[in-house]
Predict the 3D structure of the following.
Amino acid sequence: MSITYLSLSKKLRELTNNPAATAISIAVGGNCNTEYLLPGLKVSLAEAGINAEIKNIDYGSWIQTAQQNSLQADFWVVWLSSLAATKGGTATYNLDYANINNIVQHLITNKSKVLLILPEQMQISRDYYAPLYKEYLQAKHTLLQTLPSEVLFIDPEVIHTELGSANWYAARYWGLSKLPFHPNAVANLSCYTANIIAKCIKPSVKAIVVDLDNTLWGGVVGEDGVDNLLLDVNAEGHPYIQMQFLLKHLSQQGIPLCVVSKNNLEDAQAPFLQRDEMLLKLEDFVYFVANWEAKSKNIGDIARKLKLSVDSICFIDDSVYERTETKCALPTLIVPEMPNDPADRIATLINSGMFVIPNLSQEDLDRATYYKADVKREAFANSVDPEAYLQALNMQLTPIQIDPSNIQRVVSLINRTNQFNLTNKRHTVQDVMHLINLPGTYAYCYQLQDKFGDSGIIGVLIAIRDAASMHIDTFLMSCRVLNRKVEYAIYQHFIGWARNNNINQISAEYVKSNKNILVADLYSKFGLTIIAASNEATKFASTDFNDIIHPITINH
Amino acid sequence: MDLKQQVYNTIASILPDPAIKITDDVVLLGYDSLLDSMKIVELCLVLEELAEDLGFKFDWSTDTAISQSRGIFSSAGNLAAAFIAQHDAAKGK
């Protein structure tokens, strides 16, 4: 067993404060003793660079606490145990589904993310013929079917299956502390739950680059020929079709797919055009690169085009040589080890946990589409004069006040943006709500559209008023829209607002990080003056509110 | 080191203040106890580990285990006695 409750408790005692960590708040409650989830949540999140302030709600009182709004938290972890719902496996399930639904909806309306730990299989309900088995399935089914779609479900059976029943059932701990299963199993469950929370905040994989030969099909297209590739789902082609199914699923979740293959382009594309069994189609890929150059070079080029750092790109290749080459050249690239047997590969990828994508906003779902529009922009940019390109895009920026309807996207951007981020402050929903409620705050996010489509909400600027001056607390922009002068339009909107609100000074700060050197001189370009500088940060100020020239129409 | 001292050291190892001296009459469970419910679970786990290292299975889940007056967690002395008794029984002493 990889994680034990004692090892987590030890790590918890040794945990030191990380000032650079993202701060979040979590409320934990349910119908059993949930405090045992805390060490795993705290430690695992700390290891993911997240500082979680966790409040445990007394056994059985989570509904009351939520109803009274007495605890505001970014995340609620609600644990509905079978043992607790059945008086230790001695009665039928007592779960008030309608009330649970109301409370969960209430939490979601209040901008909390809800993770619900589903009822566990009890020892007494071992199989169909045992007591409470059908009720157990019914309870899970009802919760899955009736709760809002925003709920992130945690199925304890994932851990049960992994650990085995010998390491799972421990009735003595139910008697002692109302723990539904062994503390070590609870430790694993809490770490799994923490991983889901971490992925909500910092998704690890933002794009996938995949090889073709012996990865998406069996065989080498250039040597074996298109007709001889293994793609029969009922025979040896099954693992390859399953790989395509997984990638198609991830693409539908907004993860852009790209191909990097050592092949002639015509050969590489032939199976997509000639073999009906292929689940993936050419249009599923944002970039399709087939040539004879080092794969690391091609992946580096794709990263630049996607405007993503290499550490958020996953490269899937059956060849140990290619995995080693890319990993050596791009050490931060995510390169999962692939078993030699194609039949084992899907399990390896799924079990790695790297493809957990719990945060499916419309923006997330549309991300792959945005990237495909970027490819068209790129082609257009290459066909016209650089000066004329930005004008010809017909960009329109729509400033939108930050409010509960867009705050999840805003917080997601705040916590995910590294390169175009002036202060690198990480804010929770509650933090942003606090800022926007301060008198005189300028708090906007910005939607960008052009002739190739809608890029969605791509930037955030929050400035706090102090008498007649404004201080920029947060200024960031999605790397998807870099090099289009969008930041100038955003700043233009801000200074226009400042003029209209009798502001006579603007102050701002650039706080250096490992990734934001790109914006080190942004405020200087805007005409602000440096008033203080150190190795870590530069402070700026300006009393000049003159208009800035940019090629974007600002919708008011 | 005798077994009783090992049990006491085990209890001390999970306390927030390692300087606290464990004696026979230290209360482990309930009002005035040194251990909260989370620490009791930790104690059970470390004792199960210790017993495994010593080659026997420690069963603390008797009918009266969590009784504050009669259970094996009522005091450090009772816990050590139960641990030693199970150890000796397993070893045929």
Notes: The two ends of chain A are 58 Å apart (CA to CA). Residues 5-201 of chain A form a domain with the Rossmann fold fold (CATH 3.40.50.1110).
